[in-house]
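Hi support team,

I submitted a single chain yesterday and got back a structure, but I'm not sure I'm reading the token output correctly. Could someone confirm the output below corresponds to the sequence I sent? I've pasted both exactly as they appear in my results page.

Thanks,
R.
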Amino acid sequence: MAGTAVVALAGYAYASMSPASQLFGSTLIAPPLPGQLALTFDDGPNPTWTPHLLEILAQHRVHATFFMVGRFAQSEPDLVRRVAAAGHLIGNHTWSHPNLARSSAQLIREELTRTSDTLEEILGRPIAFFRPPYGARRPLALRAARELGMTPVTWNAMTSDWSDPQPDHIAGALMRKMERNRQLGYATNIVLHDGGHRALGADRGPSVAAAGILLDRFASSDRFVTLEEWAPTSPAHNSGPR
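Hi R., thanks for writing in. Yes, this is the structure output for that exact sequence:
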């Protein structure tokens, strides 16, 4: 009996937390297009580091996807508009960054709705993509996102950039995952962080520098896209490698 419970808990943990899992519902990961890369940034906007990141992206003429925390977007509406005006895609990363695998149905709906409403008021356009904090989700969360018109998104390349002080180490870890995805025949959906979910102004210098390293290395050889190009309605869409 105890063994059955352990197996059940392990199965739930995989289904709710693994970015590759599709057991609780489909998420957008990456299509079978190994020459493509999507740079995505979580936990912003960050008034200290997001502007630096925008400058680096502009230098390389690359567009990225920014999953924004609603309460930070509300505090920094001009920065949200600046990100969008530069041609980047903006997505929903909840209002306060809770673990949605452990949240009530009411809290899930409030977190997603309040964030989308705030971003849509700032931008004057619908929000079409959602990334759950920590990648944590359950069927209720994915269903709520879809009912609000959003495609849930996970990833297939992330490292602990929020705690690693070495940009070279961050970039190197991501490059190894990119190469693995390429060998498997898939594009790469990269996660970095331009903010910190606990407060505005988190130090994300190493993450921004790591993004610069990746752009210096791959901007001339690979095709960088925003997640709109990988939307489920696209013929190239695929859930990605497990």
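A quick pointer for reading it: Residues 4 and 99 are 25 Å apart (CA to CA). Let us know if anything else looks off.

Best,
Support desk
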